[in-house]
Amino acid sequence: MDKIAYVSPLNPVKSGISDYSEELIPALSRHYDIEIYIPNDFKPTNQSLANYGTFRKFHELPARYATYKTVLYHMGNNYEAHHDIYDLLVKFPGIVVLHDFSLHHFFAQKTLEMGDQQAYLNEMLYCHGMEGLEAAEKFLKGKSTPPWETQSLKYPLNLRVLDHAAAVIVHSKFAKEKIEEQAPFVPVFEVPMPVRHIIEHDQADEMKKQARRALGLKDDEIVISTLGYVNPTKRVDKILAALGQLKKEKKIPSFKFVIVGQISEDYPVHAYIKKNGLQDDVICTGFVSLEQFETYIAASDFCINLRYPTQGESSASLLRILGYGKPVIVTDVGSFSDFELDYVIKIPYDNEEIKQLMKAIDQFAKRSLTASEFIMHYVRINHSLERVASDYKRTIDTVLADNRSNVMIVVNNYLEKLAKRTMVLQSSEIFDIYVERTAANIANTFLNFK
Amino acid sequence: MPFKWYPAEQLVASMVGWRNADLTESNGEKIDLVIGTKFPSYGIRHPNKIVWLIHQFRQVYDLFGTPYSEYSHLPEHLAIKEMVHRFDNKSLTEARRIFTNASNTMKRLKYYNSISAEVLYHPPQLAGHYYCDEFDNYILSVGRLDRLKRTDKIIRAFAKLKQSDLKLLIAGKGPERENLESLAKELNVQDRIIFMGYVEDKELLKLYANCLAVYYAPFDEDYGYVTLEAFLSGKPVITLSDAGGVLEFVQHEKNGFVAESEEQIAESIEKLLADKSMAKEMGSQGYVMVKDISWDHVISRLTETIR
Asked: Are B149 and B223 part of one and the same domain?
């Protein structure tokens, strides 16, 4: 079996990517001899991973790099979980699994939170040219909101990662298309997220009954849930407004809306509940274990999984919901737009949002829904762990067959050295002509991807 | 411009350097025609560019993944491979005509880059001076001593010979010399093998003129002057069946031997030694095959676009 290095956050680092890797490694170990890289002073919670690979420390990677068929890096937007991984992936290129299309939060933490404004400006210039630099300057002068809050997809700050990756794996068609447009030199592949529990259709009714009993929810009420860490991007205020209006217009029978997950301190959800007169209809669970999380899904008639703005990420919650075959209302944005399924209703995030939400809730509430066999079938085919592992295998094999490689890995090194060497010539006419000609020739010789 | 392929940035610098060079005019004089030959010189840009392809950067083509290439599956290496392919595809298709120095070069260009070309053979450097004299008791091996030239094979074949008074003269220098000398000692044939190092032209002509046969079996060679030099000296050539361009000329048992193994190389030598008139006849056949390859023809084809 080919040997690969696997570099990812693992528990106890709190990240969806830790859970993801701990599910994936055992499945992938059927195809590869895996060495799992961890920080130098780190003890993984899940010691059973040792059955599927050999643990190695980060400092061992440089010496062992050339012995691997490839290094699989898992990169996300959380600085704490990924800063070491980022440092390795730019030095020792491998295949980067980009869990978040936008890394703006990561770089904001890496630069601004460390008090280094210049590094932030440099990164915006590197990734997004003069336009990016101007947007950053505007923000630093206090003339605009932080770019990562509203313009994260416009300024994803991911170019340095793309420049240094042998290939990139993303989880959605949306992210794949964005990268192909932005960095056509890097080979990019879509490998879907795995769904841990895909239940059988004939179990759904019984599971729903049991779950409701366990959670103290009535059988004859409509149960609607929204799941995952609750912050303004989950648009719970909009859901509450829609439910409040439906209740006022008596267009919805008796229901419970369950907000499953910890609520962000700066998001006054309870005030919204009160404002919409829903005190008797809403349950806030606070943080729950993964097991309880899934019990709430099982108990629901349908779920609402909104997200805006988005970092281009795929939603693990959404996939868990689909694994239970539950109908779901999502925001028509980013990777969420990829789903072309009955029982997945997509709504806009503009001023039509509440109106469309009401319509969708009404539609689902009127039907006596259990679970969609069609959704379960779709998820089983596209998101089972076996399917995901074999997609990884196929992708890695394709990259290694060198059908296409990322030339920027070498071009960048050349340009950096050239820049250092030609520094002394700066602002002379000869230098300008030389740089212009070199840039044009590099572009038309090596970077023409039409 | 000297060509250096290491480190990777230097290889890029070489390619970019040729792309950047402006040869449309020099000293106010228009330059009518530019002929590119080896990688990366054919990257030069000119409205009337002709390529007469001698070498691509084989380490990222047919030699990739073999011990003869220093490039592997590492992302940086794959990136270099892709860059060279892109460079070749772009700069070769800009040319108004593409010739190659050998059929092997042409086939490779077609296979790896889907680019068609026409073969244009040229005579070796000392054409007009080669001659045939005696068929003495030595085999001549000519060429740079690197692994690709496979000089080790003839040394191993020598160790298998029954005849003991035959000598092997190895003309040329290179990084493999020490290894080859050790090999000769190891096989106990060091007394019959003479490493001559660099040999002056006149001396080389004489060595060709008086040898029994010439051994020349590089791995998948593009063209290989040595074959032509041997034939122009009226000598048969012993080669291997994967020697590439050499096989465009050497025909088994007609003007030389195409061996499959070291044993067969040894057998071929035994045959020639036992029957020197056969060596003479084969050498004559070789001569007839290459005698008309001339510079006049080459130049006439290369300059067609300005006439």
From this structure: yes
The model's pLDDT over B88-100, given as tens digits with 9 standing for 90+, comes to 999 999 999 999 9
Q: Name the 3-class secondary structure at A226.
A: strand
B298 part of a folded domain: no
Q: What DSSP line would sit under B8-56, residue for residue?
A: HHHHHHHHHHHHH-B-SEETTEEP--EEEEETTGGG-B-TTEEEEEEE-
Instruction: Write out pLDDT tens, residues B144-184.
Output: 999 999 999 999 999 999 877 899 999 999 999 999 999 99
Residues B62 and B178 grouped into a single domain:
no
Same-domain status, B67 and B40: yes
What is the C-alpha R_g of chain A?
Answer: 24
My answer on whether B89 and B31 are in the same domain is yes
Angle at B231 between CA B142 and CA B183, to 5 degrees: 25
Among B9, B78, B90, the residue with its CB nearest the CB of A166 is B78
Q: Do A442 and B82 touch (CB under 8 A)?
A: no
C-beta atoms of A69 and B73 within 8 A: yes
Both B87 and B142 in a single domain? no
B9 touches chain A (CB under 8 A): yes
Q: Residue B159: enclosing H or E segment and its boundaries?
A: helix B151-159
Helix (H/G/I), strand (E/B), else coil: A339: coil
- Residue B172 CA to chain centroid, in angstroms? 13
* Dist. CA A96–CA A71, nearest whole Å: 8
CB proximity list for A168: less than 8 A, separation 6 or greater: A95, A96, A97, A98, A161, A162, A179, A186, A187, A188, A189
> Would an 8 Å CB–CB cutoff place A413 in contact with chain B?
yes
pLDDT digits (tens, 9 = 90+) for B1-20: 888 888 888 899 999 999 99
Q: Looking at the complex, does the CB of residue B21 fall below 8 Å from at least one CB of chain A?
A: no
Tokens at residue A429, please?
């006419």
Element (H, E) at A238: helix A236-248
Structural domain boundaries, residue B102: 8-120
Confidence (pTM): 0.80
Residue-averaged pLDDT of chain A: 92
- Number of domains into which chain B is organized: 2
Q: B26 and B88 in one domain?
A: yes
Mutate to test the interface with A, among B4, B60, B74 (most CBs of A within 10 A): B74
The distance of A438 to chain B (nearest Cα, Å) reads: 6
